[in-house]
Amino acid sequence: MHLKKRLYSFQLKGEISSDYINNYTELLADLTNLDVVIEDEDKTLILLSSLPNERYETFVLTLIYGRTSLSYIEVTAAL
Questions:
Q1: Quick one: DSSP state of residue 4?
Q2: What is the reported pLDDT for 52?
Q3: N or C: which end of the chain has fewer CB within 10 A?
């Protein structure tokens, strides 16, 4: 439960960096090691939701506009 709470409350403080993505990926790996299944689209939406609206709203809207799905790899590459 603790790791799930950390995942759902994961928030960007400062600027996006490789450390930020690495910390998120590590958290996902820890959950996977505990046999928690998180769908690719959910990983992606949680990551996008962790970005502050003030700075990243346009970026997020651009990524999701007109799509029916979005992959985690696409989003991490765009970040």
A1: H
A2: 93
A3: N
